Amino acid sequence: MKPEISEFSYGFALTNELVGWIALSTAPVFPSLIEEGKAGGGYDVKLDRPGVPLFLQFKRSHCMVTRAAREYRSVLATGGTLNVPYYRFPITEASTSDQHEMLLSLDDGSNLVFYAAPRFHQIHEINQAWSRTDIARRSLFVAPSTIGSLDDEQHHVAFDGANTWLCSEPRALEVLTSRGLEDRLSSYLEEHDQPLGERLPLLVTDLHQAERRGLEKAELRRSSKVPQDVPFSDRQFIRDIESSALWSAEEYIAASLPEPDPPASREPKPLRSEAAILREAADIAAHVFEAQMIIVQPR
To answer: Which is nearest to 103 in space by CA: 145, 151, 58?
Structure first.
């Protein structure tokens, strides 16, 4: 069954709830709110206290209700357990996007990076979970490093109340509940007790380095599938065709033309250095890694 809720609605509800965690102080960084100087935009972080960034990519969960579903049959064939109904969310295929590879490069041991997905899919369920402050408890957190590199085939993370599998070739995954995530964040803060103000200047550099690693690895994967005796320009053409499926000649020519100049946009408001770094880091997280950046600190 298709989800009735959007990734935005789920992400907003989960982020709002994480801010209220008792043991930790969590501040989602929204670039536009930083620029406008509004509460919750990042100014409430304490630079003299330890702090680490948490990166979450929000996913929608599809509810699978029959034993004829592909993941159920493939897990059962391995002797594993997956109870119906169960939920699943897709990992974007490498042939379509570098999204997973980018998150994997960010999840290099120095950052906390997770896919976040709900154990619900209907509007009345998210409303009920919201009213009970139950969004996080009914969510699953999966580190990209737990999944690892993937090929161009379609892959899903399938999960019930107790089991989580990476499919199509079933492999059991270790994942975190909201309590497990809170414990992980607390222990990570104890290990990284450097004041946030000292860590902050390197944050943007770390994000750019992760972006470069991800793009290089994705490009290497793509080039390894193209015959090496094909001229480079033709290899580029092949990659373009592969990524765009069956384009018409007119569509390919149109896509090859230089893009028009973008419309004039308002220049970002000048900010003091710490806020400017937070804004830039949050922008990179959103536009490059498609993730929400949250600064986590002890209360």
So the answer is: 145
Query: What pTM value is reported for the model?
Result: 0.80
**Beta partners for 58?**
116
Q: Which tokens go with 180?
A: 């497990």
Paired with 223 in beta bridges are none
Mean pLDDT by 10 residues, the chain (299 residues): 92 92 85 50 74 96 91 91 94 85 92 96 96 96 95 91 91 95 94 90 93 91 60 41 38 40 49 79 94 92
* φ, ψ dihedrals at 249, nearest 5°: -60, -40
Tokens at 43, concatenated: 């100014």
